[in-house]
Amino acid sequence: MNKPKRNLKKAILSSLCFTLILTGIIGCSSNNTSSPKNANEPSETNATSAPKEKVKLEFYYGLGGKLGETMDKIIKDFNSGNERYEVVPIVQGDYGETLQALQASLAANKPPALAINGYPEFMKLANSEVLLPLEEYIDQPEYNKDDVLLLEQGKYKDATLGVPAYVSTQMMYYRKDIFEKYNIDYDSLESFEQLAEAAKLIKEKEGISGWSIMWYGEHMIDYARSTGGDIVSEDGKTVTIDSDEWIYAWDNIRKWIHEDKIMDTVYGGNGWEWWYKTIDNVMNGKSAGYTGSSGDGGDLDFSKMATGMQKGFNGSKPRPVAVSVMFNLFKSSPKEQQQGAWEFVKFFSEANQTASWSVETGYIPIRNSAVETEIYKNKLKENPYFSIPLEQAKTNGIPPFVDPTGGKIYAEIDLAKDKVLIENVPAAEALKEAKKKAQAELDKVLKK
Fold first, then answer.
1. Model confidence over 140-188: pLDDT tens digits?
2. N or C: which end of the chain has fewer CB within 10 A?
3. Does the keyword Signal apply (predicted)?
4. H or E element at residue 388
5. What is the mean pLDDT of residues 353-381?
6. How many CB atoms lie within 10 A of CB 256?
7. Is residue 325 helix, strand or coil?
8. Other Cβ atoms closer than 10 A to 29
9. What pLDDT, on the 0 to 100 scale, is given for residue 255?
10. DSSP conformation letters of 396-432
11. Under the phi-then-psi rule, with left for phi > 0, alpha for psi from -120 to 50, and beta for the rest, what region is 300?
12. What confidence tens digit (pLDDT) does each residue in 286-303 have?
């Protein structure tokens, strides 16, 4: 900042004194050296300097509804309490749009300081070698990494490239009044096929959809793995998404939606629009239940709704994924922004903070110690269903598939999902085509 010239300064002071004398407030002299300066008084330079501007930290994420509202509040709390950094939210429509925005910013060499990514999106970024290794941060004692759930999911090859923001597992939500009306005890249902029988009864009696299937690849993977299927063979060399187990689960769902019409799926729209419309349909009595995320807890009315664990198919045990949604930092960000982004990650990851996030959203907190907080315990007293996602994750949860192609196998599964759920293409046809393309991508990796 340039200092004003001395003569100009005197003129301003003289004018100010004259004005104050006329109003009878004070008398003064334009000679600022006429009285000795107090040793404790700040210098002219310091007194006239503006406060140092905070370091801006762009933060990309795609969260809607209660999730977005809760994240916004946490960011404001961080900004108001931190004198050095200011998080600037750059809100996207969903995880997919966040990835697209990140890819564009990285291509322009203008990455944000921080982002939240779903697991498939994290894998794509990890494979492209743009993410910052985080060992120097997570090894700091104040982070207490031994208290963090699923920290291992952030490892890619030999480095930790992401840390959990929150943990998700896919739950079953249903209308208590409708199930009770027809004496359907959700917990006593032994399989997804039995749930389909209940859906058929509800459709016949109520004229509404008996169950809603989310237009979501992770759910369709859960169904296949809960039939005994896997994405690749044990030796990691063969893609197995066209196996009998996958075809059985996916084609039954296709038939229940398109042929029997006892289930439905909502698709399309902007961002998470299809997700929230599915929830609205259940809340408004157009559907008796749906498969959703543990993170839906903040948007549901539990005077009407109940939470259940996933069901297996064809006599198999349910195997839902318990997955970490990741915080990611970027190699090409300035060092000061990397440090500031980590300050926000630590803030978000404190036991009380992650417990509060869990209470507001329904997601599983990332710290073991969070369940011992008063915030978490009080929520359990208010809503006993609140503990079911964590129980499912610990009882039946399995890790997500680590895609060695950097997400290309996941992408083929997602395309096949659209064909089955939307276009009514037989599962065998859709999955065999997806397997062929995914296998070609896997072969490229194996040859390196």
1. 999 999 999 999 999 998 999 999 999 999 999 999 999 999 999 999 9
2. C
3. yes
4. helix 388-395
5. 95
6. 24
7. strand
8. 11
9. 98
10. T-BPPP--TTSSHHHHHHHHHHHHHHTT---HHHHHH
11. beta
12. 999 999 999 998 889 999
The first and second tokens of residue 305, run together, are 């709704």
DSSP-derived secondary structure letter, 394: H
Cα separations in angstroms, 227 against 127, 224, 247, 371, 430: 30, 5, 10, 32, 18
Query: Tens digit of pLDDT for each residue in 389-398?
Result: 999 999 999 9
The terminus-to-terminus CA distance of the chain in angstroms comes to: 56
**Per the structure block, which two tokens stand in for 329?**
């930092």
Place of tokens 């004070």: 26
Q: Is the pLDDT of residue 4 over 90?
A: no
Q: What is the pTM of this model?
A: 0.80
**Region of residue 183 (left: phi > 0; alpha: psi -120 to 50; beta: else):** left
Nearest-angstrom CA–CA distance, 344 and 339: 9
Cβ neighbourhood burial of 391 (10 Å; 0-12, 13-18, 19+): middle
Write out the two tokens for 340.
Answer: 């500031």
Q: Which domains does the chain have, with CATH numbers?
A: 55-167+324-395 (3.40.190.10), 169-322+403-447 (3.40.190.10)
Neighbours of 278 (CB within 10 A): 27
In the predicted model, what is the mean pLDDT of residues 418-443? 98
Under the banding of pLDDT at 50, 70 and 90, the label for residue 51 is: low
Residues composing the chain: 448
Contact 300, 279 (CB under 8 A): yes
